[in-house]
Each structure stands twice: as C-alpha cells, then as structure tokens.
C-alpha cells in the first residue's frame, strides 16, 4: 500500500471514503500483510475452538441453572474476534459485523448482572442473605462522585430495578442498530458522519446514555457482592468483562475520532475511516484472543467448592412451622 498525496493530488479513494471489496484488499497485500492475515485468522479460529471446548466443560461441570449465563458471557470475546476477522477479510461488511458484536455484548452486560445474582444462589437466596443490607448507589459510571446519595434497601423492588437497568440496554440496543441499518440503506446514516445534521451523532449519543444507565447497576451489584463472591473469582471475572467492554466500545470510538481528524492517514485502497476500522479489527482479534484464553482459566476456578452462607434446610423448615403455627393461632 502506498501513501496518497505524494504528488499533491487527492486520491479518489480518500475522497470517496468507502471501503474496498475484499479482492482489492487481498491483491494489495505484501508478504507481511499475508502473514498478518494468516496469524490473525489462526488466532480467531483458536479462540473459537477454545470456546467450544469451554462449552463442553460448562455442560459437564456447571449446574444447569448457570449454564446458559456462563456460555453467553464466555462467548463475548470469541464472537467479537470472529466478527472482527470477518470485517478484516470483507471490509464492506464492517458495519454489519460491528452491529452484531455490539448487540451481542449488550445482551452479555445483562447476563453478567444475572450471573452475579446466580452465584449468590439465585434471587431468593440473594434477598434472604442481604435482607438487612443496603445498596451503595454512589458508584460508577453515573454517580461515583455523588457521595451524598443515600443507600437504598435491598428488596425485591430494587433488585427488579437493577435488572431493568441492564435489560433496557439489551432490548433498545438492537432496536437502535436495526434503525441505523434501515437509515443506512436509505443513505441517511453514515458511521463517519458525526455532523449535527447526520443521524449517527444522535443515535450514538442516545446509545451512550443507555450504556451508562446499563453499567450503573453492574457497578452497584459488584460493590455489594464482591466480598461474598471473592472465592468465586468475581473480581477477575469483572475485570475481564470491563476489559472486553472498554476494548470493544471505547477503543473503536477513539480510533474513529483519530481517523476523522486525519491522524490516521488514507492509504489506498483504504480511506482514513476504513483504515481506522481495519486497525481496530486487527487489535480486537489479538485482544479478544487473550481474553478468551484468560477466561478459560478464570471461569474454571471456584465453581465447585463454594458453599454460600445461606439458611439451612432445618432452619427453613423451622421457619415454615413457626409461621404455620402463628397463622393457625391467628385463625383460632
């Protein structure tokens, strides 16, 4: 690939700002580019194979109530790596692959909240264990500086509101992505057009607000269960989730801004925005490959040994008998 503008003229590829066809990309690759494509594709296939092996492990070792949640969360990094690899080989599919990864990760955010509740024994045992405790809501990303906010009591209603906070993102993100694709087919949406007259800036701002609202319940719940689930490796799991979130969302935004500002130069056959997406995809493949390998280790520890301090069966039966006696006493 040769730099554009050596003779003072603007290359048509740079002015058109469109992604090339895959055959154009493949024809422009030198030996280094071919090796890079081969290594990144091998990383993606390895991540997918590791995930498949992890699914077999989950079905053998994890209780049925947790299997679906664990599979969703562990699939986040391989799915992002796979969509990035497809976008790298077929540049014109980048918008669809990015939307697929974004929608999938929106569901993973909701699943991560459900996982923390499941690791506490489920909703009933969670409420029973924390019935006299409170949630600290002055946490990131919304209210980390608002220390004056009161603590709210843990009950069924507040737990429902936390679930609703993540579920709205899992529901509205696909709706907004579908709307973006519809507008793109009509020529009204372009990811690189962030002017006030374009639809991208408004949809992205709305998605940003929804993302912050969805991440807030995750932070609130993590602060509450961090000590209890320490032997369940909840801190490494949360760290992996945060890394995947930052790398898949914030990294792409930063690279896109740099491309629009001209920091990432146009190199035919790739325009500035296409080259920025190209770099982001290659970085994501390597990053998600590492996260997949680390997740395989983290999610295999602490799943069989933990016995949470919940009410025993004898105590439960005693409570039921005492409540039955009190009810009978009230009747008579």
SSE layout and pairings?
Elements: H1 12-16, H2 22-28, H3 31-61, H4 64-89, H5 94-119, H6 123-129, E1 134-135, E2 152-153, H7 156-185, H8 199-225, H9 234-260, H10 272-298, H11 313-331
Antiparallel strand pairs: 1-2
Number of helices: 11
Instruction: Let me know the number of strands.
Output: 2
Helix content: 55-70%
Q: Could you report the average pLDDT, rounded to the nearest whole number?
A: 81
How would the global form be characterised? globular
Q: Strand fraction band? A: under 5%
Q: In what order do the strands lie side by side in the largest sheet?
A: 1-2
Low-confidence stretches: 2-8, 310-320, 322-332
What order do the SSEs take from the amino end to the carboxyl end, as H and E? HHHHHHEEHHHHH
The major beta sheet can be summarized as: 2 strands, antiparallel
What Rg is obtained from the alpha carbons, in whole angstroms? 24 Å
Quickly give the structural class: mainly alpha
Distance between the termini: 90 Å
Give structural notes.
- The protein is mostly helical and 332 residues long.
- It has helices at 12-16, 22-28, 31-61, 64-89, 94-119, 123-129, 156-185, 199-225, 234-260, 272-298, 313-331; strands spanning 134-135, 152-153.
- It has a two-stranded antiparallel sheet with strand order 1-2.
- Helix 5 (94-119) runs antiparallel to helix 7 (156-185), helix 5 (94-119) packs parallel to helix 8 and helix 7 (156-185) runs antiparallel to helix 8.
- The longest helix has 31 residues, at 31-61.
- The chain is globular and about 65 Å long.
């Amino acid at each position: 690939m040769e730099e554009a503008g050596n003779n003072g003229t603007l290359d048509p590829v740079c002015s058109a700002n469109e992604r090339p066809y895959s055959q154009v990309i493949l024809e422009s690759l030198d030996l280094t580019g071919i090796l890079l494509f081969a290594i990144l594709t091998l990383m993606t296939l390895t991540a997918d194979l590791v995930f498949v092996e992890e699914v077999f492990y989950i079905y053998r070792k994890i209780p049925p109530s947790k299997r679906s949640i664990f599979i969703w969360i562990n699939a986040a990094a391989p799915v992002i790596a796979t969509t990035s690899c497809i976008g790298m080989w077929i540049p014109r599919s980048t918008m669809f692959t990015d939307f697929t990864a974004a929608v999938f990760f929106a569901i993973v955010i909701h699943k991560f909240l459900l996982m923390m509740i499941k690791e506490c024994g489920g909703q009933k045992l969670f409420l029973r264990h924390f019935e006299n405790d409170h949630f600290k809501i002055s946490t990131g990303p919304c209210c980390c500086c608002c220390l004056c906010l009161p603590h709210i009591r843990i009950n069924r209603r507040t737990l429902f509101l936390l679930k609703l906070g993540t579920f709205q993102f899992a529901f509205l993100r696909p709706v907004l992505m579908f709307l973006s694709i519809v507008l793109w087919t009509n020529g009204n949406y372009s990811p690189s057009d962030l002017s006030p007259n374009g639809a991208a800036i408004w949809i992205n701002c709305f998605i940003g607000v929804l993302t912050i609202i969805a991440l807030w319940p995750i932070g609130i719940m993590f602060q509450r269960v961090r000590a209890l689930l320490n032997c369940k490796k909840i801190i490494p799991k949360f760290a992996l989730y945060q890394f995947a979130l930052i790398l898949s969302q914030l990294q792409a935004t930063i690279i896109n801004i740099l491309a629009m500002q001209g920091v990432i130069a146009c190199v035919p056959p790739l325009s500035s925005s296409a080259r920025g997406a190209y770099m982001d995809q290659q970085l994501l493949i390597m990053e998600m490959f590492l996260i997949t390998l680390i997740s395989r280790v983290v999610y295999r520890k602490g799943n069989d040994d933990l016995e949470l301090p919940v009410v025993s069966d004898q105590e439960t039966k005693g409570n039921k008998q005492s409540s039955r006696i009190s009810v009978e006493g009230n009747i008579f």
